[in-house]
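Subject: sequence -> structure tokens, single chain

Hey, anyone have a minute? Need the predicted structure for the following. Not urgent.
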Amino acid sequence: MFPELNHLLNTTPDKAEQGKLTLLCDAKTDGSFLVHHFLSFYLKANCKVCFVALVQSFSHYGIVGQKLGVSLTAARERGQLVFLEALKTSVDIFFQPPVEPHPLQFLREASAGNLQPLFEFVREALKPEDGGEAKWRHPVLLVDDLSVLLSLGVGAVAVLDFIHYCRATVCTELKGNVVALVHDSGDSEDEENDLLLSGLSHQSHLILRAEGLATGFCRDVHGQLRVLWRRPSWPAAQRDRSLTYQYKIQDKTVSFFAKGLSPAVL
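Reply:
Had a minute. Here:
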């Protein structure tokens, strides 16, 4: 995980909040470093994690995880991490009809829209163990990334319904957290993507939006991160609070600084 990002968000693994939806968004840049941060953060916080990986392979996340001080292989072996590797399992779906319900069953349907098997997979992965003392802290659902579902023909309403049921189960019932990444294509004609982003933004307690620089590529500043805290229960004047930082991604960490205060320009 990235200590500087924890400092910006005023959180540490030992005091991770519960019952929250965190929306990760990237526009004209790659926001995957945020996914890696939260994956390592919750594993170090001793949380049970269900990771729905729709973009990269297990080995990819594992290599980055090692740099951040966690072993995904060890976490999976001890039952802390449940990993759905869509790139691998989708091949089985296409070439061989599954005997039992599969979380990616919608890939074989003429009109992709039924994400109930995927929700059932999440619920089964994070359900409390029968009897005895809880082995892990609160459960976490991490999705990378929801935009892929739109590309596969799933409608924005179906994706929002999926997140709604996940929130009801993970956040409300199990007192856990949901973290999901969505791309902002910047295309005003992409109504489905706009609907998904808008719907998730209204539900989120925290929004982290990574953006490319308006001036283009820079060797010492890779982008800017907008942090928006949303507190629906607070008075209107205090409901939202936002900050903007610029950042530079390094091999094992990310450096954050106020706009215009990069060490490279001082």
